[in-house]
Design goal:
heterodimer; A: 195 residues; mainly alpha; 2 domains; 9 helices; 0% strand; globular; B: 186 residues; 3 domains; 83% helix
């Protein structure tokens, strides 16, 4: 039952994502790849879409994965239900936890257990995202896997150049959408101009 | 009764706008939340919003969802939480759903493939920036660096579920805080 599986998987992702931004990426990556739902390359493509459309990245990801997985399994219209259950799954843990916490939030914030867990979780998330950057980096730079032919291929050097340029812009606080547009234009130009 | 209905609608509408006009989510939402919730509707003060965001950071789930649920429940109870949360999610859902169909069709076009070849390198750069931002906000110290390294190495090179790593790190954090506290009290 793909809908139940989508719901439970994204419930788990919602329940164990701590912190904003890309904190949920390592978990989404592992779950989605282990289920064989979407290939890593499509997932990276979609990060760009999630970044350039409004709304929280985690919700955008859940809606997308739900729509694609259920759509592939049962046909297009079922994608709507797939998107709905995946999104509901992501939202529900936050919703339940905050409803409880809102009642006694001052106590929660000063709680020794919460503070203690957070001192372990914050560095953990940094390490997890580091690992995600490594695996996504490998897939971006060496889409066909590692081989000696890689270094004679112009594509690798173009990708490296785009990455370096975008990294400089990102650290100069250029807007992410601008960075994505620029990298798309260079990608298109390189694709048509190079033999 | 009519007032309650009106309040619920306002919560939904305010968080719908927040969901529809923030790109990237998370911290990008804070200025808009402040404008809608503090300046326009006076549902909370500036200090309260900062406090809510601190709580959203230390509870699971996307920060936007946590904030919407929190302000919704404080303003109008359970139904308020439901309306605010539904409002913040709905724009994403309505926008991404059609895109997911279109993307599947367009991904086969040559020009789109070339564009995504470039975009993937751009995304990698954005992820690196996000890694740096998270690192800067992280507490520094020996335990912290060890956990960072352990989480990185275990996830990158051994097939272990991310959940196990998260729970393990939380326990180590709890234990080290407990030991630090005991050392202080002796």
């Amino acid at each position: 039952m793909i809908f139940l599986e989508l719901f439970l998987t994204f419930f788990k992702i919602g329940a164990f994502t701590i912190g904003g931004g890309y904190a949920m990426l390592p978990l989404i990556q592992q779950e989605v790849l282990n289920h064989g739902w979407i290939e890593l390359e499509s997932l990276i493509n979609f990060i760009a879409v999630a970044e350039s459309t409004p709304g929280p990245v985690a919700i955008n990801m859940a809606t997308y994965v739900g729509a694609v997985v259920a759509g592939d399994a049962y046909g297009g219209a079922w994608g709507i239900l797939g998107a709905a259950v995946a999104t509901l799954g992501t939202v529900l843990p936050s919703f339940i936890i905050i409803l409880v916490v809102a009642k006694f939030y001052q106590k929660f914030q000063q709680s020794f257990a919460v503070k203690g867990c957070m001192t372990g979780l914050k560095p953990c998330v940094v390490g997890l995202i580091g690992a995600a950057v490594l695996s996504i980096g490998a897939s971006v730079m060496m889409p066909g896997g590692f081989s000696a032919a890689l270094f004679t291929n112009a594509e690798l050097y173009i990708t490296l150049a785009i990455f370096a340029l975008c990294a400089v812009l990102a650290f100069k606080k250029t807007h992410p959408i601008l960075i994505i547009c620029l990298s798309a234009v260079i990608g298109i130009a390189a694709g048509y101009l190079l033999p | 009764m009519k007032n309650k209905g009106h309040l619920l609608w306002q919560l939904f509408a305010a968080f719908f706008r927040i969901g529809a006009f923030t790109f990237g989510g998370g911290y990008a939402m804070i200025p808009l939340i402040q404008r809608e919730v503090v300046e326009n509707k006076k549902w909370a003060t500036d200090e309260e919003v900062l406090e809510i965001i601190a709580i959203a950071e230390s509870t699971p789930g996307p920060i936007a969802i946590n904030t919407a649920t929190f302000i919704g429940t404080r303003t109008a109870g359970f139904l308020g939480a439901a309306c605010a949360t539904f409002g913040v999610v709905l724009p994403s859902f309505l926008i991404i759903l059609p895109i997911s169909y279109v993307l599947a069709e367009f991904q086969n076009l040559q020009v789109v493939q070339y564009a995504f070849n470039g975009i993937r390198a751009g995304v990698l750069a954005l992820l690196l920036k996000s890694l740096w931002t998270m690192y800067k906000k992280c507490p520094k110290g020996l335990v912290s660096y060890l956990l960072m390294a352990a989480a990185f190495l275990i996830t990158a090179f051994i097939e272990i579920p991310v959940l196990v790593v998260l729970v393990g790190c939380a326990l180590v954090g709890l234990l080290s805080s407990y030991l630090a506290k005991r050392r202080e009290s002796i």
